[in-house]
Amino acid sequence: MTTSSSIQPHPTKTQRKLIVEVINAKDLLPKDGQGSSSAYVVVEFDGQKKRTSTVYRNLNPEWNEMIEFEVPVPNTMEYEELEIEVFNDKKLSNGNMRKNQFLGRVKLYGSQFKRKGEEGLVYHQLEKKSVFSWIRGELGLRIYYYDEVFDEQRHDNSNIPPPEKEPEPQFAAVVAENERVMPSEIAMEGSQLPPMVTIEESPPVVMVVQPEHNHSDHHRYYYQQEGPAVVHPEIPPPQHQPQPQPQPEYYPAEVRKMQGTMGRSGGENNERVRAYNRRPINVGDYAPKVINKKFNVESERIIPPPAYGGLVEPMQYLFIRIVKARGLHPCAQSPYVKIRTSSHFVRSKPASYNNPEWNQVFALSHNKLDAASATLEISVWEASSEKFLGGVCFDLSDVPVRDPPDSPLAPQWYRLEGGAGGGGGEGAHACATVSGDIQLSVWIGTQADDAFPESCSSDAPYVAHTRSKVYQSPKLWYLRVTVVEAQDLHIGSNLPPLTAPEIRVKAQLGFQSVRTRRGATNSHSTTSFYWHEDLVFVAGEPLEDNLILLVEDRTGKDPVLLGHVMIPVASIEQRIDERHVGGKWFGLEGGVGGGGGGIYCGRIHMRMCLEGGYHVLEEAAHVCSDYRPTAKQLWKPAVGILELGILGARGLLPMKTKGGGKGSTDAYCVAKYGKKWVRTKTITDSFDPRWNEQYTWQVYDPCTVLTIGVFDNWRMFADVAEDQPDYRIGKVRIRVSTLESNKVYTTSYPLMVLLRTGLKKMGEIEVAIRFACPSLLPETGAIYGQPLLPRMHYLRPLGVAQQEALRGAATKMVAAWLARSEPPLGPEVVRYMLDADSHTWSMRKSKANWFRIVAVLAWVVGLAKWLDDIRRWRNPVTTVLVHLLYLVLVWYPDLIVPTGFLYVVLIGLWYYRFRPKIPAGMDTRLSQAETVDPDELDEEFDTIPSSKPPEIIRIRYDRLRTLAARVQTVLGDFATQGERVQALVSWRDPRATKLFIGVCVAITVILYMVPPKMVAVALGFYFLRHPMFRDPMPPSTLNFFRRLPSLSDRLM
Description:
Layout: E1 12-26, E2 39-45, E3 48-51, E4 62-71, E5 81-88, E6 101-109, E7 114-115, E8 122-125, E9 138-151, E10 173-175, E11 181-183, H1 255-263, E12 289-290, E13 316-326, E14 335-340, E15 345-347, E16 357-365, E17 375-382, E18 387-395, E19 412-415, E20 429-430, E21 437-446, E22 456-457, H2 463-466, E23 469-472, E24 476-487, E25 503-509, E26 512-515, E27 520-521, E28 529-540, E29 546-553, E30 560-568, E31 574-575, E32 584-587, E33 603-611, E34 640-650, E35 656-657, E36 663-664, E37 667-673, E38 676-679, E39 690-699, E40 705-712, E41 727-735, E42 744-755, E43 758-772, H3 778-782, H4 792-795, H5 800-819, H6 827-834, H7 843-856, H8 858-871, H9 876-891, H10 896-911, H11 934-940, H12 950-982, H13 990-1009, H14 1012-1023, H15 1036-1042
Parallel strand pairs: 7-9, 16-22, 18-20, 31-33
Antiparallel strand pairs: 1-4, 1-9, 2-3, 2-5, 5-6, 8-9, 10-11, 12-42, 13-16, 13-21, 14-15, 14-17, 17-18, 19-21, 23-38, 24-28, 24-33, 25-26, 25-29, 27-28, 29-30, 32-33, 34-39, 34-43, 35-36, 37-38, 37-40, 40-41, 42-43
């Protein structure tokens, strides 16, 4: 008889394999001493090193070899490094070679690997190993991976006992925006402890990272009360005592010190919870301030988050999940549920009698101090007749508190109770009998609860437009269309004599339209034209649009269509480097007389490709939040995590009026970094809203900017047919590179808006921000030496005007994409966050830029004043010391350069005392917003074309002419000085040139005869001579220079 165990299938195991196909190399350096190289390739991945064969004396070797690696931990493959090095084999080279010569290397990361079937041949530029390396050439690779499933029992040997399991290393980790765990490289070094991190809060909050997450939940909130009862510091087990962990916990790099600190602080009374002190708002204060984070809301023990460090306050809510009902009275045709507490009243959507299901969750703000004697009433009603169908009552003091790591609270069936008019309220009518049950669950939690994002909150009742959401910008590509030539065009025969036809190509992609220049023709053909012109568009995924090209004859007054062609964008080839793209011929249709009947109208030759090596700029370059190229395989690994806690706002001004003339504000906050946008919930009718929501972003380049904006919600009051724009309250920009590593900044920033009437402070926003990254590791420091934009921006740069036009198109596409979300982000919100109008003319911005230049040159002016004080002997002691220092530097000139760098070091150390304590926000003084003229503001907000009367336009034009005249004078002065320098040897003034040449001859003889040190000492002491030996008139050299002629007298 066959047992059940004998027919069970063998357990299977999945092994990931990484395949590296080394195809070829191009243009290598000759390093064998005979004008060539015998190259081979060494590939190393995760401690595994393999090499290819050697190709004898070939600077363009072909290998076509496949190298296979095993990936031991597939989950961390994207953080592993693949290093590929090319060497010249010394055995096949000249006999003087002592070692294999280095020819270049390529470093890739697992995030750039593609799954099998999606790979392609990519040529990588060979990189240097050090500054002094001489490297050139490219290496062609095809890299992919696949998962192999095999029978685990075949690979086991029962006769051999299993080896003793080594303890798994504990990786420090941070959680990224897509809920992935990214190990910190510091903690991956082995058993070394992570670096000590200084946190501004005291005491800090413990963070626990759990491996499992709900990927649809983009923001979670968890908290940990202080006290030893809930702190479990991690102690790494010794090497000889492995401790199996079926579900390991990963800790961020900065957590272990915090755990150790809190674990040693036992015995303290840690029952208090932190909150914020409310302080009065000074309307005239435009500077950011540090706020103290103190909690005053009582809370049960709540587990801290897997990704966050407790940057926000815990806000308690009473959660009611209404699932369904059964056995209701037959009079209930469309029942609904009413929920009432002492301070809240909400109702659910109506349900059908046949299947009364609601599946709704309500989150009501909860105060534990007032809940001791409060009750919760849940009643079922009939929608049409408003008849009471029964209810359930709960004592809030008995409602359980749910800890976020626990599973959701299971709903239970409760019998509906009530009588004639019982519990129905005023004007209520109950059915003859109350029957049936209702399935629900009630618990107390915080905004960290899984049910909170989709719940109907009591402070944001308009669910459609008030929920917190996370948005993603569309993936944008640059579409490059190279129009080469067109042949066999049907040109009209009624052209005037000796007139060449004006043929142009007009390309359209969505709302974008670009026209080529006039086509040139060959002398032997009048139907063929060529352009060789690039047209660039912005295309957004899912690439559903069509590219339309129209060939037009614009010789006459009205353009004549000679033919058109329509090309789907999804069929266009994609490229990630500067490789050549082959051209194609397309037949033209629908020309003059064509009629769409398939008549041949000519053909056009084009090259088209989707550029993946560019970064599509939708933001201004100076406030950009992401510089990664479009192609994901070119992305570098992240260098850290940016955590933002949006705490709340204070002292907001009323944005709208409600019944009775009462002012009201319904505020929400939007934050944008990279491709990820976040929107908080809308707090209705509050001048001091508290959001307490926390979000994270991966940081790929610290030299980027985070933008935070606050808006007043108007769309939730508008009808579906109308589009009511939201009103902006203010925004703040924070540059990530100004944040110290692993430090929490809890800051209040003023919200300011520039209106036609002047600068207006709308309130303050309170945020907590932290940039979690290793401090000055080689990977982090190397970013500052890399180009800011991707490689294609420098190989095939775009023009300034072209890039500005493409940025405007990208902004429109992002705004249209986010407007289709639910709730939508309006175009006015997107344009305000992206600074879409930053390129428009403004007298205020021109003045601000001028004063910025003056501030940059202020140190030069200060140095000149200091030298003038020295040479005038204002402080004799300082002047004498300068004389001595000058003598030392003259007699020991090799000390000049080290002394200069030492002086720079001392200046940096001196200014360290005055470093900014908090990240800076908007600067009203730098923006010239406090003293701006009202007419200049009115001009700044004017539309194009202007909507002002002619008199005002004439005044502004005259003012602009006056300003331009000043600029013209300054430019003329600069030109005059340069022309005078040229006049020294140009013989425009023969006497001046003779004098100058004679002086140069005398200086040459003196310098040949007198030692240079003596000359330097004499010139220095002459420059620093006492005022009693000085003439108050200008020196003769300056007088001579001012008398030299310029070309200004030749201007008409």
